[in-house]
Every structure is written in C-alpha cells, then in structure tokens.
Amino acid sequence: xxxxxxxxxxxxxxxxxxxxxxxxxxxxxxxxxxxxxxxxxxxxxxxxxxxxxxxxxxxxxxxxxxxxxxxxxxxxxxxxxxxxxxxxxxxxxxxxxxxxxxxxxxxxxxxxxxxxxxxxxxxxxxxxxxxxxxxxxxxxxxxxxxxxxxxxxxxxxxxxxxxxxxxxxxxxxxxxxxxxxxxxxxxxxxxxxxxxxxxxxxxxxxxxxxxxxxxxxxxxxxxxxxxxxxxxxxxxxxxxxxxxxxxxxxxxxxxxxxxxxxxxxxxxxxxxxxxxxxxxxxxxxxxxxxxxxxxxxxxxxxxxxxxxxxxxxxxxxxxxx
Length: 321
Known about the structure:
The chain is built from two helices and 20 strands. It is mostly beta strands and 321 residues long. The two termini are 16 Å apart.
C-alpha cells in the first residue's frame, strides 16, 4: 500500500443553503390566501459533462411550520426540465413557510436507490445509502430549504438548489504511463472512507452525528467514459495541465471536515488493486476535492485542490515526497 502524506491547502468558502429563519406568526393570520409559483433551479451549466447539474430530473418538496411540523397538502414532486421546475401552490398570506427541496435523478416514480425519502414529507430528512457502484453520476443531487412568505397574489419565488455533498476525486498525473502500457483498459476504482454521516435534515441543513458513522465502500466501477481527462489551469501562470480522472464520488458533508481517504484501483495486471491512502483530506459541502498524484508509478508527487462550488480552481503545488 502506498501511503501518502501531504500538507493541505483549501479555498475558504461557506455553503449556505438555508435562508435566515424568522418566527412564523402565532396569531393574527388573516386567512387570506394567494397563489404562488416556486421556481426551482439546479446549479448553472458548467463546461464539463460530469457535475453539470443536467441529470437531475425530479424534485421532491414539502412545507413545514415554525415548529418543524409538516403542513397538510403541501408536499409533492415536480419534473425538472431545462434544469428548472415550477411548482404552483396556494399559501396563506403573511405566514412563514419553511419549504424543503430535494432534486435527484429519479425513475418513473421519482425514486433513486441511493436516497431514502420515506419520511421526507413528515420530517424533511433524506437518508443516503452508500450501496451500489462507485463513480456513479446518478448519485448527484441537490437540496435547499427556504423560508417563503407571500403578501400578494401570483408571486414568483425563486429557489436555488445546491449540493449537500462534497465530490472527492483522484486525478492521476501519470495517466500517460498507464495508457502507454494499456493498463487503463477496463480499469475500475472505488474509495474507502469511514465515520461519515448518512442522514440530511432538510429543515435545518444539518447531518447526523452518529459517533460510529457510516463506511463508504462502494462497488468498484469504471469511470464515466465522457470524462476520462480533467484539465486544470493554474491561475498564476496560465499553464493548463491534464490529468487522468480515475475516481469520482459524492460524499454527504458538513461545512468543513477532514477524513482519511483510500483510493482503490484495479486493472488487468493488478486484480487485487492498487491502494492509495491519503490522510486528513479536507472536504466541504458543495465543494470538489481533487487529490492529484503519480499513483501508478514510483515517482510520487501529490497536490490537493479544493474547488469552491465546483467552479473556480485553487492550486497549490507541493514538493516531491
């Protein structure tokens, strides 16, 4: 097993999916109602196929009162077209509703095996199932909670969804050496992480803090073929460097945390796998953590890049170990 140690450098950035909450009125609600349209949108299209937000096709939603109790008749699903969904509801004027939204790649019933929503309408919770295959773009999902108050008829309220996940990737700097000898053919990979949360409370955006936590050990699987390579441009020098993208996984995250991450890679000549262990990896909700190194050759050089909001790149280079 290769064991790699590195010094972390990360972009500062906070994820804020929830609006500031204010107390819902306990009395004096005049009972007047008005129609309102909730315009729900997944993140804007990026230049890459993976993580462009296009795959999410269904949004689950529910409304809660200021005691976190479900409001009868205010829950359902809507189809996402063009990365947007419109939900029409009737609400009492001047009352604060806490809406929770969850969008993912759903089947004809709006379900995704990676996410349990059996109590979503009652408590706003989503349970993450870390079974299934690694490197699965269908595990991408988006979330928001938002206090919505209306004062007039036919208002339109816009809701921007964000990922409650960190995306953790292994990018091989020595991918050309691997390709030169044909070891990249039929290569599969997965990651191993321990002590992770598995339940998102959509009402307040928190995750469960079970001391034992959940182990992520998804079934090894091939990288999506449309994103075989990943190019990063150093903002300081303008130099673009291309890496082989050999692992991509979504991890339910808090604002900031660190965990040990093990990348496991399998090819025809190493059926028992190449294991890359990286300690104290920082990761953050709605951020992408890129672990870069020469994983398949003896020369070892590691970089760590944490990308805020999956958009801009931040690069630090570390000396050869």
